[in-house]
Amino acid sequence: MGGALILESTVLLRWLEREGYWPLGMTGISMGGYMASLAVTNWPKPIPLIPCLSWSTASSVFTTGVLSKAVNWAELEKQYAINSVYEKEIIKLLDYCGADSFKMGPDFPKPTDSLEHLLGLSGDVSASVGETSKAGREAEAGLDLLIGAGPEEGGTRGDQLLSSGNNTGIRLDTLPRSLHVNNTLHGKKTDSSKCYRPSLHQESISFMKAVMDECTHMANFSVPVDTSLIIGVQAKEDAYIPRTGVLSLQEIWPGCEVRYLNGGHISAYLFKQNVFRRAIYDTFDRFCLKYPDLQ
User: Fold this and answer.
1) What are φ and ψ of residue 48, in 5° steps?
2) How many other C-beta atoms can be found within 10 angstroms of the C-beta atom of residue 287?
3) For residue 116, which phi and psi values (nearest 5 degrees)?
4) Which of 122, 190, 212, 251 might form a disulfide with 185, Cβ 3.0–4.6 angstroms?
5) Rounded to whole angstroms, how far apart are CA atoms 172 and 195?
6) What angle do CA 90, 40, 243 make, to 5 degrees?
7) Could you tell me which residues are beta bridge partners of residue 184?
8) pTM of this prediction?
9) What is the pLDDT of residues 142-174, one digit of tens each?
10) Which ranges in the chain belong to alpha helices (H)?
């Protein structure tokens, strides 16, 4: 999608130039702002850019933003655990866009705390949740990733670890329900509970973030010709597009301007259109003053 968008935008801008339209600029809101940014990275001339309610990468949108709740993490974790190609081969192809891709650990949501907060659990109910989580962590401590174990060792490595877990008093029913299903690996059925490890959830999130950074991070694309013609507009309380833990637009595009407004993603779209328009006016005025003869 990104490659097609860049190509189509370039064709459209060149057509507008030939038709005599001037000045030209790119803007958009949310994903549209990100798409406008992509288009400008491939344009060989100075051009106004006003990305609204978008940021430097889509990875945080689906790993720490509110849309992360829509991702089927249980299925992704299962696939990541039973198919070693993800961590043994694909992960080596990712550049992670510098230092920010695998440093999101402290910002990952805590499922138990979030559940208690959302449901308003308290007292005995919260204590029960805490005890269950503790039991789950004990079960996790006795297990490891089991891909690659073979029968030549006198039974699968999974059977050995499960047996070891039982000997230490760990109950297998404390494992997540999503792991108590059968999966097929290389033509053989594999009990997915034998593919669990303590860090699997965080590893899956980190892998997802790295893949999305590789494909969507603005640092992987060319810097626009004149970053002083970029004015981004951000909502201070935007929960859809978290800015914590990722490179900022100013770091990727030195010289650009970012304006912040009060509100969240939805309220900004509904009630702050005037702020977006002001940023557009200002950017085009800046372009006309700086490049009056560029047509």
Assistant:
1) -65, 140
2) 22
3) -60, -40
4) 190
5) 13
6) 60
7) 189
8) 0.65
9) 433 333 344 444 444 343 333 333 444 433 333
10) 2-18, 31-41, 59-63, 73-82, 85-88, 111-119, 123-141, 157-167, 200-216, 249-252, 265-271, 273-290
